[in-house]
């Protein structure tokens, strides 16, 4: 039984499409498994709301830097940094908070930092000789 070239071409195209779909599905499963693992590790509080001081602690920045990263027009503005959500319902709406899931996703997008030996080339303070102003200019270790 001979297969027509046109039918064979369609079958090849269909097989490529199925292969790409399976690959995309595998990526989605990987993302979902990471999310489930993260939810299990954090006790299900993945989408809780954090206030500014807690966000600053989690990302390792000061509270003012967190505010500056969210302020459009500021030199430290980061369009990728999650924006806070209004929590208050009054006229001023001063209370704001960030969802932990969005902060966590932002942290995951940060590049890996590689520290080289030049970062800490200075000798330790105890091994440096220092000139004491109180000992008549003598060197002490």
From TrEMBL:
PANTHER family: DNA-BINDING TRANSCRIPTIONAL ACTIVATOR ALPA (PTHR36154). It comes from Rhodanobacter geophilus. Pfam families: Phage_AlpA. Residues 119-141 are annotated as: Disordered. This is Helix-turn-helix transcriptional regulator. InterPro entries: AlpA, Prophage_regulatory_activator.
């Amino acid at each position: 039984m001979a297969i027509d070239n046109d039918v064979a071409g369609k079958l090849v195209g269909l097989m490529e499409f199925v292969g790409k779909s399976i690959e995309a599905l595998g990526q989605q499963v990987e993302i979902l498994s990471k999310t489930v693992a993260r939810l299990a590790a954090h006790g299900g509080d993945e989408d809780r709301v954090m206030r500014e001081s807690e966000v600053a602690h989690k990302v390792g920045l000061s509270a003012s830097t967190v505010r500056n990263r969210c302020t459009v027009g500021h030199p430290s503005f980061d369009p990728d940094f999650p924006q806070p959500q209004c929590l208050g319902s009054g006229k001023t709406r001063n209370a704001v908070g960030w969802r932990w899931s969005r902060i966590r996703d932002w942290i995951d997008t940060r590049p890996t930092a590689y520290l080289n030996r030049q970062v800490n080339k200075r000798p330790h303070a105890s091994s440096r000789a220092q000139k004491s102003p109180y000992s008549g200019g003598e060197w002490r270790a």
